[in-house]
Design brief:
The chain has about 290 residues and is mostly helical. The protein has helices spanning about 1-5, 10-40, 55-65, 65-95, 105-115, 120-130, 135-145, 155-185, 190-195, 200-215, 215-230, 235-240, 250-260, 265-290; strands at about 45, 50-55.
Length: about 290
């Protein structure tokens, strides 16, 4: 009876909402419910059956926790150095591989993308062995005379951080390159040909045509790279173990240690997780406001 009273547009709208209902319910159960539950856990202290209400004490602890400030600084250091290098490198590689005259393009694309398909733990173990004191990198540098003796890359603060940055860049550059390559292939070749006829150089074409036309995709990859870097865990955990003395540890690694290592404290770990959530949301909003002019 109700169906007869509805207009065609109303019926179409109702069917659309029915299709969306399943996805909306799943998103609510898998995303929003854990967010709300996590906040209530952040108001408690302890672990398991020993948890008790603590109010805002976990958030107050954040303000005076020196290790928290240290791991946050590490995350922003990785973000400031690694993300721009990775995105610029991915954009350059995509522009080079978009050349229709380039031979073996499929092979080059596969080789650059392949690290992304490698297990996070496996890639961390590989880099750990490469940069070990008796590893391949030290052997090459000593044989070339660049180093007099083996250097402990993973045992010194800045070199350990640089190893993490190199590992992340190696793994994710190909992933972002695929996005740029897909965007470039949707741009008409006639635009580049017209620029060439008008006398534009390769550099001018890159900055005046390629980058403006890829702006939405660059924004997308910047947001994804920022979110991934702020949630970085595997490299810190498996590559440097957060060392030396926690100076290369990320906030996700710290959350794991607080929640599951030693005297576990689920409440404080949840409070730390909310910091990551706020940082990711804030950075994404800033990038949207700065880059997207629509």
């Amino acid at each position: 009876m109700l169906a007869r009273k509805l207009t065609l547009s109303q019926k179409n709208g109702l069917i659309g909402w029915l299709f969306l209902a399943t996805a909306a319910i799943m998103i609510g159960m898998m995303s929003f419910f854990p967010m709300i539950s996590g906040f209530f856990i952040a108001l408690q202290t302890g672990a398991g059956v020993n948890m008790r209400f603590a109010g805002l004490s976990n958030f107050e602890r954040l303000l005076v926790d020196p290790l928290f400030r240290g791991v946050i600084s590490n995350n922003f250091l990785y973000l400031a150095i690694q993300v721009p290098i990775m995105l610029v490198l991915a954009l350059i590689l995509a522009s080079m591989l978009n050349n229709p005259k380039l031979r073996f393009k499929g092979l080059f694309r596969t080789c650059i993308f392949l690290p992304c398909a490698t297990s996070l733990v496996s890639s961390a173990v590989i880099f750990r062995s490469l940069f070990a004191t008796n590893g391949y990198i030290n052997t090459v540098l000593v044989n070339l005379g660049i180093l007099e003796s083996s250097y402990n890359f993973l045992g010194n603060t800045w070199s350990a951080r640089m190893v993490i940055i190199i590992a992340i860049t190696w793994r994710w550059t190909g992933f972002n390159m695929v996005f740029y390559l897909a965007g470039l292939q949707n741009i008409e070749r006639s635009i580049f040909e017209a620029a060439k006829i008008d006398g534009a150089s390769v550099v001018q074409t890159f900055f005046k045509i390629t980058i403006p036309l890829l702006k939405p995709i660059i924004l997308l990859t910047a947001i994804m790279a920022t979110n991934g870097t702020l949630q970085l865990f595997d490299e810190s955990m498996n590559l440097t173990m957060g060392g030396p003395a926690n100076t290369s540890m990320t906030i996700s690694h710290y959350i794991f240690n607080v929640g599951f290592q030693g005297t576990a404290n689920f409440g404080y770990a949840a409070a730390l997780s909310y910091v990551v959530f706020i940082l990711v949301a804030t950075m994404s909003l800033i990038q949207l406001k700065v880059v997207d002019r629509r």
